[in-house]
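Exercise 7. Given the components listed, write out the predicted structure of the assembled complex. Treat all entries as one system.
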Amino acid sequence: EAGVAQSPRYKIIEKRQSVAFWCNPISGHATLYWYQQILGQGPKLLIQFQNNGVVDDSQLPKDRFSAERLKGVDSTLKIQPAKLEDSAVYLCASSLAREQFFGPGTRLTVL
Amino acid sequence: DAKTTQPNSMESNEEEPVHLPCNHSTISGTDYIHWYRQLPSQGPEYVIHGLTSNVNNRMASLAIAEDRKSSTLILHRATLRDAAVYYCILRTGQTGANNLFFGTGTRLTVIP
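Answer.
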C-alpha cells in the first residue's frame, strides 16, 4: 500500500514570497490533515478535511494560509506571503478510521 | 483539550525493555489514549491505542492504570531503530473528532 506522498521535500524562500505544498493521501482515505511542526515541538494541526469539506481550520492563520482539497483527493496548502516564523516542517496525514498515516513532510525555510 | 505530561527524555540500553510513562489526570471517560512516535526526519507513525484495557500489538504494549489517569508504553526489547520521540495523545471518542493534539513528547535514546 502506497503511503502519503508530499512534495516538495524541501523549500527555501525569502520572506514575503509565496509557497505551495502538495499532498496525495492514501487511496480511499476520506480524512486529510495538514500539520505544522516547528523545530523542537510536536506537530500542530492546521486544517482537517473530510472528503473535500473543511471540518476544522481553527488553528489556520487565514490571513496568509489557505488550503484546498479539490475532488476530495489531493490537497494543497499555500502560504502567501511567508514570514520568518513560518519556517517549519509541514506534514500531511490521512486516515480512514482512528489511525493517522503521515507523509514525510516538507521542510520550509524562510530567509 | 485534555493534556498529557511526559518526561522530556529517557535512555535505554539496547535489547532491554523500556517503559515510557504518561500522565493524563484530566482524561474524560470517552478519551482514547494514543501513542505515536517520530523517527528522525520522518513523519509520526502510529504505535498503539487503548481505552480502558491493556493492549498489545507487534510494536508495543500499552498498560493503562485502573483510574485511567496514567498509562505506560512498553517496548519489550529496545533496538537502535526505536530511537525516536514518543508522543502520548488523548483523542476524544466523539464521532468525527479525530484530531490529535501533540505535546513535546519523550525523546528516547537507545544506547548500543
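Discussion: The radius of gyration of chain B is 13 Å. The mean pLDDT of chain B is 92.
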